[in-house]
Amino acid sequence: MVQIARGGSAAAVGGSHVLNPHQARAVVAGATHSMLHAIHTLGLLMTVAPLAAAVFALVLLRPAAAR
Prior knowledge:
Strand content: under 5%
Largest sheet: none
Structural class: mainly alpha
Number of strands: 0
Mean pLDDT: 80
């Protein structure tokens, strides 16, 4: 489908066909945007989660204040 959306022929994809090539191009563009958004979200989570865990551990393991 991606090959058809980018201007390839239906025969090259094993007999598949697209009724509306413009809509197929929009789907491919939207999928690319969604993948990039998912990558950025995952990167943010992989940064924030360890930092939050480190702060939480420091708070729990803080020595008691001397009186």
